[in-house]
Automatic annotation (TrEMBL):
The keyword Hydrolase applies. Its EC number is 1.5.1.5, 3.5.4.9. Homodimer. Catalyzes the oxidation of 5,10-methylenetetrahydrofolate to 5,10-methenyltetrahydrofolate and then the hydrolysis of 5,10-methenyltetrahydrofolate to 10-formyltetrahydrofolate. The gene is folD. One of its GO terms (molecular function) is methenyltetrahydrofolate cyclohydrolase activity. Belongs to the tetrahydrofolate dehydrogenase/cyclohydrolase family. This is Bifunctional protein FolD. Residues 139-283 form the Tetrahydrofolate dehydrogenase/cyclohydrolase NAD(P)-binding domain. Residues 5-120 form the Tetrahydrofolate dehydrogenase/cyclohydrolase catalytic domain. It comes from the Bacteria. Keywords: Amino-acid biosynthesis, Histidine biosynthesis, Hydrolase, Methionine biosynthesis, Multifunctional enzyme, NADP, One-carbon metabolism, Oxidoreductase, Purine biosynthesis. InterPro entries: Aminoacid_DH-like_N_sf, NAD(P)-bd_dom_sf, THF_DH/CycHdrlase, THF_DH/CycHdrlase_cat_dom, THF_DH/CycHdrlase_CS, THF_DH/CycHdrlase_NAD-bd_dom. One of its GO terms (biological process) is purine nucleotide biosynthetic process.
Length: 286
């Protein structure tokens, strides 16, 4: 049976460290880091995420600024808000919750954020900086995965890592981070031939496909570390259940270590958002 990597406990430790650093900044420099979160529309999942982000921001002693805009907000209005936040010295981090309503151009909106305040790490400048090994804002979910992997293994150098999923938010930056830690990295996706064989070559297997329980035990190399990024709501036995992209029952019988859903990657994502906001505030103030 695999060791369970407890993301919830790890995230609590990260938040404690952030809170201690924030308290020091306040005392020594009179500086309070601020995070602005922009939500357009009423998507229920996004509302839950934004609520959790705001609550935890305040809990670590930072200022939270929530901007909730109606679903029919036009691009000019949104860009004007971002411009205001870019120029507000009390705001060190800006996050525009995705997905945006269809009439808004996500790339244009994200790239209008000041890259130094882009705590999601989605701005094209940060993508380029990460890809070339320079000092970047790193996307929160892959950063959280990397922290758990480093904590479990120490060095990742020379390990075979397979990332299943090629999204800009998780798959691609995850691959870059693993490459930065000297893994041999494969990105697999829906067109990959013989996905089972590819996955079975992985010492580190990261599942970020958004398909409930797609990665099964027969796809896992014995002793491998499995990181499950998926958050899928499914109906089972007449109940709504939260499951990952990994079939936990079969995979945990083969893996050496595995993250559960819930309580694995999810809590680490918000903890890393807080850490990125702190980093942005420190960089902004020399
Ligand atoms: N929607 C789902 N995940 C994310 C995320 O990490 N950041 C933002 N801004 N929106 C998301």
């Amino acid at each position: 049976m695999a060791k369970i990597i407890d993301g919830k406990a790890f995230a609590a430790r990260v938040r404690e460290q952030v809170a201690a650093h924030v308290a020091r900044l306040k005392e020594e420099n009179g500086l309070v880091p601020g995070l602005a979160v922009v939500l357009v529309g009423e998507d229920p999942a996004s509302q839950v995420y934004v609520g959790a982000k705001g609550k935890q921001t305040v809990e670590v002693g930072m200022n939270s600024y929530e901007h909730k805009l109606s679903a029919d907000t036009d691009e000019a209005t949104l860009l004007s808000l971002i411009d205001k936040l870019n120029n507000d010295p009390a705001v060190h981090g800006i996050l525009v919750q995705l997905p945006l309503p269809g009439h808004l151009d996500s790339d244009l909106v994200i790239n209008s954020i000041n890259p130094a305040k882009d705590v999601d790490g989605f701005h094209i400048s940060n993508v380029g900086l990460l890809g070339t090994g320079q000092k970047a804002m790193v996307p929160c979910t892959p950063l959280g995965c990397l922290m758990m992997l480093r904590d479990h293994h120490g060095s990742l150098s020379g390990m075979n890592a397979v990332v299943v999923g090629r999204s800009n938010i998780v798959g691609k930056p995850m691959a870059q981070l693993l490459l930065g830690d000297s893994c041999t990295v494969t990105i697999a996706h829906s067109r990959t031939k013989d996905l089972t064989a590819v996955c079975r070559g992985a010492d580190i297997l990261v599942a970020a496909v958004g398909r409930p329980e797609m990665i099964t035990g027969d796809m896992v190399k014995p002793g491998a570390t499995v990181i499950d990024v998926g958050i899928n709501r499914i109906e089972r036995d007449g109940k709504t259940k939260l499951v990952g992209d990994v079939d936990f029952a079969s995979a945990s019988a083969v893996a050496g270590a595995i993250t559960p859903v819930p309580g694995g990657v999810g809590p680490m994502t918000i903890a890393c958002l807080l850490a990125n906001t702190l980093t942005a505030a420190c960089r902004a103030n020399g």
